[in-house]
Amino acid sequence: MAWVWFHRFGSPPHFYRLARRLTPWFGWPALILCLAGLIGGLGLAPRDYQQGEGFRIIYVHAPAAWLSLMVYVVMATSAAVGLIWRINVGHAVAASCAPIGASFTVLALATGMLYGRPMWGTYWEWDPRLTSELLLLFLYLGYMALRSAIDDVARADRASAVLAIVGVVDVPIIHYSVIWWNSLHQAPTVMKFGRPSMPASMLVPLLLMLAGFTFYFAALLLTRARGEILRRERNAHWIAAALEES
Amino acid sequence: MNEPRVGFIAAAACLMARDLRLALRRAGDSLLPVGFFIVVTTLYPLALDPSLSALRDIAPAALWVGALLSSLLALDLLFRDDAQDGALEQLALCGQSFAGLLLAKTAVHWLLTGLPLVLVGPLIAIALGAPYAAMAGILAALLLGTVALSLIGAVGAGLTLSLRRNGPLLALLVLPLAAPVLIFGARATALAVQGEPIAAPLYLLAAIAVLFATLSPWALAAAVRIGLE
Hints:
The complex is a heterodimer. Chain A has eight helices and no strands. Chain A is mainly α. In chain A, α3 runs antiparallel to α4 (88-120) and α4 runs antiparallel to α7 (200-232). Chain B is mainly alpha-helical. Chain B has ten helices and no strands. The mean pLDDT of chain B is 91. The chains are: A mainly alpha, B mainly alpha. Chain A binds chain B through residues 83, 135, 138-139, 141-142, 145-146, 149-150, 155, 158-159, 162-163, 165-167, 169-170, 173-174, 177-178, 180-181, 184, and chain B through 152, 155, 159-160, 162-163, 166, 169, 172-173, 175-177, 179-180, 183-184, 187, 201, 204, 208, 211, 215-216, 219, 222-223, 226-227, 229.
């Protein structure tokens, strides 16, 4: 059967062992990529002739913003897997995604505000990207609030899965409506992020950081998901054996 | 699941008639949200400069934030009683399309709590300094906007069905999802007040309303089923 691997994936002991084996394969590359990216971005890249040294915050800001969206998609996908095939591991992964995604969103917002201070002269501007990032944070908070409001784990899993799926359909609409809202408003554009083609010395560190953050997310997610599975399966027999192996 | 003896249209019509009759017996409940809407929009002139020229600028925002909050408040009426007396479970078990029946319930809910907003909204806009010529545009925007708000709100109400105290959580779930409706609705209203063509935001509002009408019944049915388990 072609689907055996899929159902094996959905068995908690199998997933737990797989996650434990895979975590270093994501964790160490993440560390190396981020170190290389930071050295390249903070040290080797030339300063921007318009934005000065301030632009270097983009090496944290852009990967965090990218991940804040990607984590939502991963969360909704694994929640959908959990809901459709009734695979508990999918729900556990989705539950582990939410706090990570919310943290990346907060990081993107905070670095965006720090970026805004020298560029716009103010920490908070109702810039479309920042605003849609803020709405994304509310979506994460709503997901976590719904999950924690329902006591029964199985019901919380399924209700929050429906919310995540509704959210993932709505996220692009929210994003573009916010962008159009601002462009329709003709807000005073203090500073335009016209993306000029970056020179390689700036772009390569950024790509390294993007890859590093993504690997970091994968390692973090696997670790969190293992914790989540241990918590959910705390009465199962396989746990003692699995913990002894490590 | 037993084989239904009547067609879906008959069942939905029967359900809608029942919901309407129940709501009309207790008309006060259904009028509460529109009363809230009127009171909230009345507060703006009190909090702000009461001159019409100043109010005209904030009229779209006042109108749409009021409509959003009022439709949020109204969601409590949607499933609460039927969940408590077991009517929802009967609907889930009756063999008809559950998503379709819930869509019919949502339609009645819009008729009772959304339509009053649509009718009162333009009058409030004029009280806040909008010109008479803007009435048609505001009416159209509210018509599309309240439909979309009822549909997305119903999903939130379904998700929080099993919780006893759900008000703040419902707001946190629904308000970010409803942000596009607010943006385009307020935008259409602002353009109408300025006497400019409002087709673009109206089309976008219509697109959102159609999308929600297409997708939300399935999410709604899933959410309510989970809540009933």
